[in-house]
Structure formats: structure tokens, C-alpha cells
Design brief:
Blueprint (H helix, E strand, L loop, with lengths): L1 H26 L4 H30 L1 H11 L2 H31 L4 H28 L1
Length: 139
């Protein structure tokens, strides 16, 4: 437990240092890509470290509640609801991508944008079919 807390504190410190480095790069007129990269990585590490540290603190303060929440999150009904919601949201996203492809055609966008949208649609469809076959074999 102590090692995890130390790791998360180090992640937060490294993230803060990278954010300060991004600010220094901006002040020194470094390329924007460099500052953007430092900002993104620093923010990600800072947020990751802080959120995991906070969860660890909650676990230390109330272990009974955290155990109850963990059991509830892994309950069969909750898992089934979550998977169904993910499936429906995947379908909605798939058709939104196709609508974006049609919109890009209508707006006269470059062809590669339309082809990327269609490619993502097809990749999702193929992945869905592969998973259907896999799950049918398992069950």
C-alpha cells in the first residue's frame, strides 16, 4: 500500500514538473509541438497520479464501503447492463460516423476524410462480426 502511494505521488510530481517545463518552453519560444507534448503528458500523469492516490485514500478511510462497491460493480446484473449500454453506444457511434461521411461528401471535404470515416465504419463492422463468431464458439 505504501509503495503504491509513493508511486502515485511521484507520478503527480513528474506531471507537475512536465507542466512547468511546458510553461518554460512557451516562455522560451520553443516549438509549439514540444510545449503541447509536455502539456499533454504532464496533465495526463498529474491526473493519473492524483486520481489513483485519491482512490487509495478512500480505500484506507473506508475499506468496508470500497469492498461493497467493488462487489456491486462486478455483480452479474451490473456487468450485463454495462455491456448492453456499450453495445448500444457502439451502434449509435457507428451510424454517426457514417452520417459524418455523408456530411463530408455533401460539404465537399477532401476524399480522404470520407474514406477514413468509411474505413472506421467497416473496421467496426468486421470487429463486431469477429467477436460474434468468437463468442458463439465460447458459449
Amino acid at each position: 500500500m505504501r509503495q503504491k502511494k509513493t508511486l502515485y505521488m511521484v507520478l503527480m510530481a513528474v506531471g507537475a514538473i512536465l507542466l512547468l517545463g511546458a510553461f518554460a518552453a512557451w516562455k522560451l519560444s520553443a516549438p509549439d509541438k514540444f510545449g503541447g507534448m509536455l502539456t499533454g503528458v504532464g496533465s495526463g500523469l498529474l491526473a493519473l497520479g492524483f486520481s489513483n492516490w485519491k482512490i487509495l485514500r478512500w480505500t484506507e478511510k473506508d475499506p468496508v464501503r470500497m469492498r461493497r462497491d467493488e462487489i456491486e460493480a462486478n455483480d452479474e446484473r451490473t456487468v450485463a447492463i454495462r455491456r448492453r449500454a456499450q453495445a448500444v453506444s457502439g451502434e449509435v457511434l457507428q451510424w454517426c460516423i457514417m452520417a459524418a461521411a455523408w456530411l463530408s461528401i455533401g460539404l465537399g471535404a477532401p476524399l480522404w476524410i470520407t474514406l477514413v470515416a468509411v474505413g472506421v465504419f467497416l473496421a467496426k463492422s468486421v470487429l463486431e462480426l469477429c467477436l460474434i463468431v468468437r463468442y458463439q464458439r465460447e458459449m
